Amino acid sequence: MSLLAPFPGTSKAPPDRVGGKGSSLIRLTTAGFRVPPGAVLTTDFFTPWFAELEQTTAWEAFLHVDPEQWSEHCVALKAQLATLPWSAAQREALTELGEYLARIDGDRFAVRSSAPDEDHSAASFAGGYLSLLGVRTDELEDAIRNCCASALDARVFAYKRECGLVLALPRMAVVVQQQLASVVAGVGFSLNPINNDYDEVVIDASWGLGEAVVSGRITPDHWVVDKLTRGVIETEAGAKQIEIVLNDNEGGVRETAARPSKALSLSDAQVAELTELIKAIEALFDQPVDIEWAFADGRLHVLQARPITRYVPLPPELTTAPGERRRLYIDAALSKGLTTNAPVSVLGLDNLQRGFSTIIESWVGRSRLEPAPEDELFLFVGARMYMNLSPVLWIASPRMLAKSNAPTDMLMAKTLETVDRKRYRSANGPRWLGFSLLWRVPRLLWGVRGLLWQLVKTFVAPERAYRAHQHMVAGVEQALRDLEAEGLRLDELHRQSGAIFIAAVGTLMAALIVGQLSPRMLVRRKSTEECALAEQIERGVPGNVVVEMGIALHRLAGLVDRSDYEDLPALAERIERRQMPASFLQAWDHFVTRFDCRGPQEMDLARPRYGDDPQIMLQQMAQLAVADALDPAALHRKHVLERQQAYEALRSRFGPIRGALLRAIYRRNELFAGSRDTPKYLNLLAYHATRRRALADGHLLVAAGRLDSSEHVFDLRFEDLARALEKPSLDLKALRESRISFTRKLSDHVRSFPAVIDSRGRILRPQAVDEVPGLLRGMAVSAGLARGPVKLLRRANEKRIAKGDVLVAYTTDPGWTPLFVNAAAIVLEVGGVLQHGAVVAREFGKPCVIGIDRVMDRLQDGDMVEVDGIAGTVRILEPEIENPPPSEPCGLT
């Protein structure tokens, strides 16, 4: 096999031989783009070196050290690679390379690392590997060796760990390419990387070589261009502080001072030519790309092109064609009960859609009309649950939409306030807004009559309604658990569990609505004392199943010796074998019996729960089993007492009318505020039964050779599994691949799902406000003041939360509750006063601030911050404050 792949001259080469960069250059050259010629030393050229390194003690040592020690071990590995000799085959390939390069104009070359795992859709490794410019012929061998050695940099291994890639010895290819003495160069993006708009090209440019732009050494000239009209949307002249050019007398490059002229580095014609080039490369790759380009000798050249790794793709069902009127969507999966920032599985999304449709149909009946795509309100597609606001804008203003979303997602509300109604309202009024709506209003009133009647009874006779509610909840819980034991088929189990839940919706919703009555509506907003007392009244309510779960898990964690948490698999095995004290096993069994349906990202059927995997519980228990950890049970008792005292204090401030209203609200809040999470708990019992039945079917399909893993049933729909029973010839493996293709795309590209996005991918954000350096502003949802080091978490069990850490997350669900116990404070990007994180933070007395745009990018692990749960701010403290005395979060008293 040849160790050299020249271009032109090689029509196609797989990335595992020539690396991502080399594969892209060969593809571009073959397609006819103007690419400086060169050749790739393939991975086979360097394989002997890495094979030899793999046998060394230096590599063995690297595999067994903490990431903090990678740097020194990587230096040792690179030093060892530098001593490895060229083999006869390598020498032959280098000779062949020299002969090929001799036929290329010029005596300077760009030498770039080209790893198989870089420049593809899931990982770019941008800036991770080495590129050397202006290399002379006599310097090529050293440059090639140095580029190969960059695969052993600690930053490369850190990036691999971040992307979830295997930390094995790397494979590497190296590109040697004609070096252009460019007059102007830079980068271009086929979508706008700032707002994700698919119809905008972004160009950054500066004088000289593109290294000044790529390295971030300068502020480049900047253009945003409309792909459709080719009109320039935005132009901004950069400072272009330095210029990087080829070194005339020696190899390499040198810096020169900035040109005195403030002229733009590209003409209008060049911007237009670049725009067409970027669009053409995007069409070739069939996905968004970023490129490096250069103008040299009066012509435009492509230096690199790679897929954009971080952007938000939309499924076809949500996407409109370029130039069509755009639709506006909100991601309801972030804050409307699901609270997940991960793609939802195929079966999980199908389950959510069926449950949602069942509730809606029970209220308004089955629709006789298939809505047009632009009129569809709720869309369960693309592994998310979206709501189409464009037709809603016919009957609601952006301000109204913002107000309705504020309780669960303040950031979304701030964004919706500034939406351009004329731009995003659908061109025509939705069909459901016509005469059919007149029929549906009375049908809706009839459908929700049970809920309205329960609401009246709950408000008028709260004591009797409470007893009926408790009796009903116990009955539904037992019925759902009994249903699982009946061995029903998956579709029948799903139908019957849904019917049981629907029958209870009226009672559950009535309790939830009445429970949200708050003494805040009675206090004078300018009275700080009354507001503080009202907030205390909202804490310490009984009956919240999530709070009870946190208390029970903390109590369970205390029954295990701390040393046992050092080996969780061994501890799980001892529990499985019942080799633990009887007191612990009794508490364990009780917890699992009641909370087996709970766990992180629990609204997705595909996610394992406490009842599926004991290590999920043990990981969270290990975080709770620390010295002097907060006791949530003791804290809850304290809040119960403070609640009663606050009620008496507030009532003493009121006259007879406000006092009577306060007494009524207080009692109803006491009885029903804790029921906030009860509907979800019952729903999850049904989900858990459905999950287990689906897994049982999965085992049968694996035994029949139709699936490779029982977990793969979650990559199919209910209808797929039903058809599988009726049609043994149905190719489930192929069907699964088609079902999860877009989910894989999301996993590759998306770190955080945006709250508001339009049908051409544009992410809408809140209106920018003047910022104070080091101060992040959000919304206060739980009072108190605390300092501590930041701990960023994207998944519930990603890292351990030590006592005093400030937990920073995009969004949380009830499966995160145990993490709140040790945290000094909580900061969330997505949420509102009624979102799970805010409710639990208030109950645990932890300061909580939500609604800080891009907080996951603006903070990093270890930052010392002060979280003010009254002002709604997060202040980044000066670096010298590294070890402040530990502080407990303080609530208002």
What can you tell me about this protein's structure?
This protein has 893 residues and is of the alpha+beta class. 43% of the residues lie in helices and 15% in strands. The model is unreliable at 119-127 and 881-893 (pLDDT under 50). The strands form five sheets. An eight-stranded mixed β-sheet has the order 18-25-24-20-21-22-23-19, with helices on one face. It has a six-stranded antiparallel β-sheet with strand order 9-8-7-6-12-13.
Quick recap:
With 893 residues, this protein is an alpha+beta fold. It is 43% helix and 15% strand.
Provide the residue-averaged pLDDT.
89
Overall 3D shape: globular
Alpha-carbon distance between the termini?
Answer: 76 Å
Please tally the β strands and state the result. 25
Number of helices: 30
What integer value in Å does the Rg equal?
Answer: 31 Å
Task: Name the structural class.
Answer: alpha+beta
Flag low-confidence runs: 119-127, 881-893
**Helix content bin:** 40-55%
* Order of strands, widest sheet: 18-25-24-20-21-22-23-19
Please state roughly what percent of the residues sit in beta strands, choosing from under 5%, 5-15%, 15-25%, 25-35%, 35-45% or over 45%.
5-15%
Q: Sketch the major β-sheet.
A: 8 strands, mixed
